[in-house]
Amino acid sequence: MNTPRRSPLRSERRGDPEKTSGTFVGMPAFPEAASEALLDPQLRHNLSHATGTIRAKRSNVVAELPEWEDLRLAGAAVKDATLRSLDTHLLRLEEQLTANGATVHWARDAAEACAIVAEVARSHGADEVVKVKSMATQEIGLNEALEAEGIAAWETDLAELIVQLGDDLPSHILVPAIHRNRAEIREIFRTRMAAAGRPAPDDLTDDPAALAGAARAHLREKFLRAKVAVSGANFAVAETGTLVVVESEGNGRMCLTLPEVLVSVVGIEKVLPTWASLDPMLRLLPRSSTGERMNPYTSTWSGVTPGDGPREVHVVLLDNGRTNALADQVGRQALRCIRCSACLNVCPVYERTGGHAYGSVYPGPIGAILNPLLKGVGNDPQTDSLPYASSLCGACFEVCPVRIDIPEVLVHLRSQVVDAHRGDRRPSGESLAMKGAAYTFSDARRLERAEKASSLAGRVLERFGRTRLPGGRAAAGRLPGPGAAWTGARDLPAPPRESFRAWWRRTSGGTSGGRSGGTP
Amino acid sequence: MVTCVNDAMFPGTGQAVVTLLRRLGVDVEFPEAQTCCAQPMVNTGYLDEAVPVVRTFVDAFTGYDAIVTPSGSCAGSARHQHGIVARRSGDPGLERAVADTAPKVHELSEFLVDVLGLTDVGAYFPHQVTYHPTCHSLRMLGVGDRPRRLLEAVRGLRLVDLPAATECCGFGGTFAVKNADTSVAMGADKARHVRETGAEVLVAGDNSCLMHIGGVLSRQRSGVRVMHLAEILAATEGTP
């Protein structure tokens, strides 16, 4: 009876070393990972198609609400007020949950949270659990931790199932298999489903309805068999001790109602004081996330209800770096995040690199701030590279339903990264360049000397260089050394013969002597 | 404020601003003590290094009625980031000076439309042009359709819509070299959209973005020129 039902998927991992771990551990820093991803034309095509579609849907349904900006302000205000007295609301939540017959656990970090969930499963002799899609359980690496205990964790969200069967990593918060097209999904189902349970039908096509049908049949036996379910929560209402899960497929409802035991891992920032404060959130989330006016399933449960749903309910309140983020006065706004993914869908960087390049279950603009805030900076180059994985274009802030000023936090975290490395024994080339620039820009006479030197280089290029920009201006083609990063794919205009300031002086403020050129 | 990029690389843009503003009757000065707005340091995370640069900025510009700059990005830096740098310095004097200069900074199209109340600046430019709204002018400053209104009033100019205009070109300051491959991938898509318009000239309000998109367009031998908004607005029948 208690032979561990180990996931057969794991043994199939071979070849690609990045996939043998099934986690993001050991991922390279963003620039390298992004460069690699940019070489995959199928990925670029899949992402631009998928994010373009969902962007348009969101934009249409948001435009329907003239009060959208007020809703955003309300959402941000609710979250800010709650975060300001988070301790009070969490204790109230615990009190109400306990009164409703739930068992509340507090987990400082991923290891504690995983151990709690494993212990609950073990105490019921379970060798498998069914899972509702949950970012918190991905963040703590729960599936891997359970597997190490001989417990198989089955993802039941369609996209999560595709990722799990494909031995893959999630690349999007809402649509973790966004990097896959339907032909790839058919292939994964055909070759991998049998090893995990009910096989895909022999005549499976790549028709979306057929693919969903295969997943439905495959998952149904797991829903009916599992004794223990694991979920997260989108929100936790303190006044009544109620957890809320918002979903589209109904798999969550199955997991939340059929098994005997339910364990929910909930980040401490998910708490809301009242049902009234839930109101703006439930209006903001679906439109921002799936581009729907309302999501198909919203499940709420308050502890144990005799004769209805799970007989044993556990709630694991997870910190895992959240109090560190809360202590950061600029960064704490990231804890408002309701995991809608609007920032991913609109991000021009994400659209080109995909989610894997961010090396975390939280990719995209929100991942670029959330990961460093949760993990701290100055410890590993991968995390330190994330605040720089943005052109600071601001499109993310524009769509964020809770008005997280992501560019502001990115710039703030960049200064933390720089400050964390100020004591390094060998200063980086960048820090020397910045010190040099600061020296030059602190005094106009120094800048003038630098401009004179660069105009000399410009004259050389004008005389001997072969590259010309449209319009005739001389340019540098491919440069060696540090210049290669720019000129690998972009021509660089040659410095002009005369800087603006030299022209201003020579012509007494443009009143004599004429122009010197130097248009772009 | 000419900006360091225009001073060192694109003096023609600064000259165009001088020509244009004088034509419109504005008394223009170039305080020679000016250098850079410190954005390269701030946006790369070097706040301590930005402090003396912001100090140089306020020393150069304190006392003027309006600080006009042909860059949405540098205007955004002065208005929204100088306060952060001043707080970092711990110098209340610098904080006060910044609080005085920051609100006086205007991006060129804002100054023309809001302060001077003009959209027709008497320019003539008989070419087909497409306009890229740069991210900081669009989303940080909120210049809206001011540049378009200015361009639409230019005689002879035919303005064609740029597909996916509001999407970032991928320049992003040091992002362009720290994440060069991603930056170029974004720039290549922007360049493709520019070519699709069939325009002769791509115009924008930031030469740094234009240097990036123009660099891609030039490498592609596209034959499309890039020009700063100021240079088009400064052009008249009498200028070459």
From TrEMBL, chain A:
Residues 9-19 have a biased composition (Basic and acidic residues). Residues 422-506 form the Lactate utilization protein B C-terminal domain. Residues 1-23, 472-520 are annotated as: Disordered. Transmembrane segments: none annotated. The keyword Membrane does not apply. Keywords: 4Fe-4S, Electron transport, Iron, Iron-sulfur, Metal-binding, Repeat, Transport. The keyword Metal-binding applies. GO terms for biological process: lactate metabolic process. This is Lactate utilization protein. It comes from Nocardioides guangzhouensis. The lineage of its organism: Bacteria, Bacillati, Actinomycetota, Actinomycetes, Propionibacteriales.
Automatic annotation (TrEMBL), chain B:
Pfam families: CCG (PF02754). One of its GO terms (molecular function) is oxidoreductase activity. Residues 2-75, 129-213 form the Cysteine-rich domain. InterPro entries: Cys_rich_dom. Transmembrane segments: none annotated. GO terms for cellular component: cytosol. This is (Fe-S)-binding protein.
